[in-house]
Design brief:
By secondary structure, the chain is of the alpha/beta class. It has two domains: 189 residues, Rossmann fold; 77 residues, UDP-galactose 4-epimerase, domain 1, CATH 3.90.25. Helix content is 42%, strand content 15%. It has ten helices and eleven strands. Strands 2-1-3-4-5-9 form a six-stranded parallel β-sheet, sandwiched between helices. Helix 1 links the parallel strand 1 and strand 2. Helix 4 runs parallel beside helix 5, helix 6 crosses helix 8 and helix 8 packs across helix 10. The termini are far apart.
Length: 315
């Protein structure tokens, strides 16, 4: 699909991932006037009539809007995370189908995978068990959008594709400690310790769990490549292909930020799923996806952005 003359609806286009997708579309040569980004207040996608309005006259929908957060936020708001992610996606897909949208791109999450999935996660593993309980409501809500897209393809010929994203990181991430994911949360903790001259930081879990992280611009590039070149019902993993233990991640962040204090592990708090890592061979084969950013360099860019844009002295 040549996107240059397509009218594109980009939900979540002002968010962390969405703003990177928007930038990449412009770099492709898509005119800004051809990209519509719904306003989350005026165009609340939890309301069916708003979904009906925003898809009118659109050729492509990239659905990047989501209610997201880390383990703590998921534990505190499981009902909200389930309802808002399910209702937005279900209504938007239905209205896009009715409006004759040519292609619908759903952005999924690693949280759809079963808790006991063997590493590396392969797309055919997603129905082999129940997701990790700490993030299951969110993961299952997003998983239902895969089912919806596949069933709509079967019954209506609706071209819906589904991309499964690893944990994202990068400049512009959410650093609010109440809702942030692991990398921005750790960066913020270390910065706060430095600002207050505290000699330690407290980290959830034991540090033995592993995670895989995908730089946000690499994710955006993969999404656009899939939008241009992928038209099959099977879901596709987008990740970096490299696991890192949380303990090693914390050590790396502390080193990059010049923090030499003690790392204290709170084993009363959950680790979440013990291992996470993607097989990304399908994405490489189908649309030439190949992440460009090394983890160390990406982490450095993220810390630099935080220092300039977020960091404030502790009063």
């Amino acid at each position: 699909m040549d996107l240059l003359n397509k009218k594109i609806l980009l939900t979540g286009g002002r968010g962390f991932l969405g703003s990177s997708i928007y930038k990449k579309l412009l770099e492709r040569g898509v005119p800004a006037e051809n990209i519509t980004i719904p306003d989350s207040k005026q165009d609340d996608l939890r309301v069916q009539q708003n979904c009906e309005q925003v898809v009118k006259d659109k050729h492509v929908v990239i659905h990047a809007a989501a209610t997201v957060g880390g383990i703590g936020a998921n534990a505190e708001h499981p009902g909200k995370f389930f309802y808002e992610n399910a209702i937005m996606g279900i209504q938007l897909i239905e209205e896009a189908r009715k409006a004759g949208v040519e292609k619908f791109v759903t952005i999924g999450t690693i949280c759809i995978y079963p808790r006991e999935t063997k590493v590396p996660f392969k797309e055919e593993d997603i129905w082999n068990g129940y997701p990790t309980p700490t993030t299951a409501p969110y993961g299952l809500a997003k998983k239902m959008l895969l089912v919806q897209g596949q069933s709509y393809r079967q019954e209506y010929g609706f071209n819906a594709i589904y991309l499964i994203l690893e944990n994202l990181y990068g400049p512009g991430d959410n650093f609010d400690p109440k809702s942030s994911h692991v990398i921005p949360a750790l960066i913020h903790k270390v910065a706060q310790a430095q600002a207050s001259k505290t000699d330690h930081v407290d980290v959830w879990g034991t540090g033995v769990a592993t995670r895989e992280f995908l730089y946000v611009d690499d994710a955006a590039e993969g999404i656009i490549r899939a939008t241009e070149n992928y038209d099959k019902p099977d879901p596709v993993n987008l990740g970096s292909g490299n696991e890192i233990p949380i303990k090693e991640l914390v050590t790396l962040i502390a080193k990059e930020m010049g923090f030499s204090g003690e790392i204290r592990w709170d084993s009363t708090k959950p680790d979440g799923q013990l291992r996470r890592g993607f097989d990304i061979s399908r994405a490489r084969k189908e649309f030439g996806f190949n992440p460009a950013m090394s983890f160390e360099e990406g982490l450095r860019h993220t810390i630099e952005w935080y220092r300039v844009n977020i960091e404030k002295p502790v009063s």
